[in-house]
Amino acid sequence: MTHPFEKANLGKAPFSCTHVSENVFRLPDGSAKAGGCCDYCGTGLRWEFWIKGSIAGARQFKVGCDCVAKTGWGIEGFEKVRADHTRARRQEGAEKRAEKKREARKAWIDEQHAARAIEREAATKVWRKENSALAARLDAYTGENDFLRSMIERLGYWGTLSEKQTEATESCFATIDRKEATRLTSEYIGNVGDKVTLTITIDRIVKIEGYYGTNYINIARDEQGNVLTYKGLTDIGLKGETKTIKASVKEHTLYDGVKQTIIQRPKLVEVALG
Fold this sequence. Notes:
It is built from 6 helices and 12 strands. By secondary structure, the protein is an alpha+beta fold. Helix 3 (about 80-130) packs across helix 4 (about 130-140). The longest helix has about 55 residues, at about 80-130. The chain is rod-shaped and about 135 Å long. The model has no long low-confidence stretch (mean pLDDT about 90).
């Protein structure tokens, strides 16, 4: 029997399939239509399966996969070309769907970011209005305090500070202000070797357990705001207490820009009531 393609003068059997190609043309509205034509039946084709005959150098011709099936004759290599083509189209479709999902997710993320940016901007305005003085100090701060620098960084990124962070920042500035006030007001007490009687308020106590008992490091201030330090075994009181003591001036030092008087051999003085 003569192959139908051979009867149509398309070539000499046996035939083989070499590849498949796409042939479309785009319409003004963006849609696409088949741009090819089956050499066997004349039907419009989008996917052209290219066939060659057994005569060397003979031209190839194009047909649709339906025409190959209708002839009832096997075409060498056709099933593999079609299977590869089907797999490639499925893969392309899957990639397009995945890309569409990625684009949709990106659009959703961008929308969420835009909404959060609007919320953040509104929250920033509210926070800065309610904490205008603190915001101004943070904006102007150029010091080296690590905590304050971290709060400035957070404020720049988020636009606000949490309630606890706001309280901690205010407390940090208050500590800095107290230290600055102390630096400006504290003077040396007496001369080295002088015996002095002082009424002091204890600001800080550090206890160190040693071989000979408990050692105390006391930082206090007198009634004029002068800072004094005592290091030794004598317990002169609790933090926050006000005591009257007699002591000797051991040394004058400068610590963190603050003038401090170091005393030794302190003794509590009983203050008569009434």
